[in-house]
Design brief:
Elements lengths: L11 E5 L4 H10 L8 E5 L12 H10 L2 E5 L12 H16 L3 E5 L14 H6 L2 E7 L6 E8 L5 E8 L4 E9 L2 H15 L3 E2 H8 L3 H10 L5 E6 L4 E6 L9
Parallel strand pairs: 1-2, 1-3, 3-4
Antiparallel strand pairs: 5-6, 6-7, 7-8, 9-11, 10-11
């Protein structure tokens, strides 16, 4: 079990170009982690540094072992400008390549100083990933807030967690809850699914939301929950739901 959900054991490779060996050892002690055949840690203190994205060794590992691959942090595994869409496009393509070979890449990325944004750098970073999470701490309670703010194949959600370091565990103290935006996006998705090709005006009328708010939601869900295309003599924008090509396991 993990965070109250059934989980399958996977091979795990943690590639770390961020932390010194002393910090990693202390964290491993607190979490009671031990190196096993299914868990490998490759840190910057090794004689051979963890390879950058695009290195053929990562492709071979992904193909042969299909692990969950952590990269700590994204900035350390490429030589591009994270604010440049041109630079980040091939970086994100390398991660997609690892996923296509059977691995599950998980990149740790830093937040900006401006709280208005959930991640640093080019919007190509968010556009390329299937799932995006933010993790923050309430320093008064010590609780953690886990917010899934992008989910290409399912619903976004928030959870409140409490680290139980004495038992090397993380306890769910507030189970998965959808935000108001999530519930409204799901309502729009239901409308679009029922009438593929429905146009924006018809969606606004059926949803009952204020027009500007509904239009903003349609923009937010574009290419994540639905596709849009201009059709007809008047060029009306029509919407079609993006259906997941396979059944998701709970």
């Amino acid at each position: 079990m993990a965070l109250g959900r059934q989980a399958n054991q996977r091979n795990v490779l943690f590639l770390d170009r961020e932390n010194p060996v002393g910090v990693v050892r202390e964290r491993a002690r607190i979490l009671r982690m031990t190196s096993t055949s299914s868990l490998r840690y490759w840190g910057g203190w090794e004689g051979d540094l963890p390879p950058l994205l695009g290195d053929i060794r990562l492709r071979e590992i992904a193909r042969d072992f299909k692990p969950l691959m952590f990269f700590d942090s994204l900035l350390r595994f490429h030589q591009g400008d994270e604010n440049s869409a041109k630079d980040m496009a091939p970086v994100m393509a390398n991660l997609r390549d690892l996923a296509n070979l059977g691995a599950s890449p998980f990149v740790i990325h830093h937040t900006p100083k401006n709280d208005a944004y959930k991640f640093r750098g080019s919007t190509d970073i968010l556009a390329a990933v299937d799932l995006a999470y933010s993790l923050s701490m309430n320093h008064k309670t010590g609780n953690l807030s886990l917010n899934c703010f992008k989910n290409r194949f399912g619903r976004e959600f928030e959870m409140v967690l409490r680290p139980d370091l004495e038992n090397a565990d993380i306890v769910v103290i507030q189970s998965e809850t959808g935000s108001k935006d999530t519930r409204e996006l799901e309502a729009l998705q239901k409308i679009i699914r029922a009438t593929p090709g429905i146009n924006q005006t018809e969606i606004v009328n059926k949803a009952g939301f204020p027009q500007k708010h509904c239009v903003d939601l349609l923009k937010k869900g574009l290419e994540k929950h639905w596709w849009s295309a201009k059709k007809g003599s008047r060029g009306a924008t029509e919407f079609t739901v993006i259906e997941c090509p396979y059944k998701l396991e709970e």
